[in-house]
Design a protein that fits this description.
Layout: H1 5-40, H2 43-69, H3 83-111, H4 123-150, H5 153-184, H6 194-221, H7 229-238, E1 245-254, E2 257-265, H8 272-289, E3 294-300, H9 302-309
Helix pairs in contact: 1-2, 1-4, 2-3, 2-5, 3-5, 3-6, 4-5, 5-6
Length: 310
């Protein structure tokens, strides 16, 4: 049996609330960084404002993906709209990788001396970045909790996106500190390069995590079966009294929802009522392994299976 309508509605509402909160936070941070960047003339903070604008686009994409994926199955989409979440996660992965490329290019040009950035360091420079870190930590944790609870790739991608913002904002603060220190220690010119080196490290971490998430999204879009689950399902079903054999196990995810199709062999002497009760128990047992799964059980007597396999 699948999740009740009321439970599913509550889950969809919670996912939409978390996604919308992320959109509002992204809009607020973008506006704040843009204002401070313009007032201080800091190109570093202006770059962070552009980064936050990209985050806003990603958050909006996630919000609409969550809204669409929560729609029930209809005449044109028999398995629901859950794949929208997987597609949204893939889009966010591409945006993350694009951000990584931009960071690497900027950091490299600064290290090679091709780009000279004058950073004005004052109270507001630190205040806006510190606020950004606090907001990003809060919303990334909120998104990740909801992603784990509801098995949502879209929310997980959003959480990853904003957790990387914590690192990028930290790098900006490190750069500001080094610039301030460099003013008092002109004999240490390498201080002006610390932020670029740190940015390369952050970009490397972001790329590694993004690629892993992207591969998971692609696998979900291609209906790849979760590794090891088919064997686990087979063992579980064959341990139930009355089941002679379990075979032709198929499983796929559509967003957070799992769909499982299995064939079982049962005695041809069993009544239809007993076989139906057996399939109901199998569905309940499999939902202990994968909560909320949509399970389809095809029972058949051994003699038919033997004739089909010849």
């Amino acid at each position: 049996m699948a999740l009740s309508d009321q439970t599913q509605l509550h889950a969809d509402q919670e996912k939409r609330f978390v996604a919308f909160s992320s959109v509002m936070a992204a809009a607020g941070l973008t506006s704040m960084k843009l204002v401070v960047g313009l007032l201080t003339g800091s190109l570093g903070i202006m770059a962070e404002a552009a980064h936050s604008a990209l985050d806003f686009l990603a958050a909006v994409t996630t919000y609409f993906a969550v809204r669409i994926s929560g729609k029930p199955a209809d005449i044109g989409h028999h398995y629901g709209h859950g794949k929208v979440e997987n597609f949204s996660a893939l889009i966010e992965t591409v945006l993350l990788l694009a951000t990584c490329v931009w960071i690497v290019m900027e950091a490299t040009e600064r290290l090679l001396g091709k780009t000279q950035i004058e950073i004005e360091v004052n109270f507001w420079s630190f205040a806006v970045m510190a606020t950004s870190i606090v907001v990003d930590i809060t919303r990334s944790r909120m998104l990740m909790r909801a992603a784990i609870k509801h098995n949502s790739q879209a929310l997980e991608a959003d959480a990853l996106h904003f957790s990387t913002d914590v690192w990028s904002s930290s790098v900006v603060i490190l750069g500001l500190i080094c610039v301030k220190a460099g003013e008092s220690l002109p004999q240490w010119p390498f201080l002006h390069k610390v932020d670029s080196i740190s940015a390369l490290v952050v970009a490397a971490i972001m790329t590694w995590v993004s690629v892993r998430l992207g591969m998971r999204s692609i696998q979900a879009l291609l209906d790849a079966a979760p590794r090891g689950k088919a064997d686990e399902i087979t063992r579980k079903v064959e341990s139930i009294p009355g089941v002679i054999d379990c075979h032709q196990v198929r499983m796929r995810y559509s967003g957070p929802k799992a769909f499982i199709d299995i064939h079982i062999l049962v005695s041809g002497e069993e009544t239809l009522r007993n076989v139906h009760a057996l399939t109901e128990r199998i569905e309940q047992e499999l939902q202990e392994i994968i909560p909320g799964a949509d399970v389809t059980v095809h029972p058949e007597p051994p003699e038919i299976h033997e004739s089909e396999s010849k």
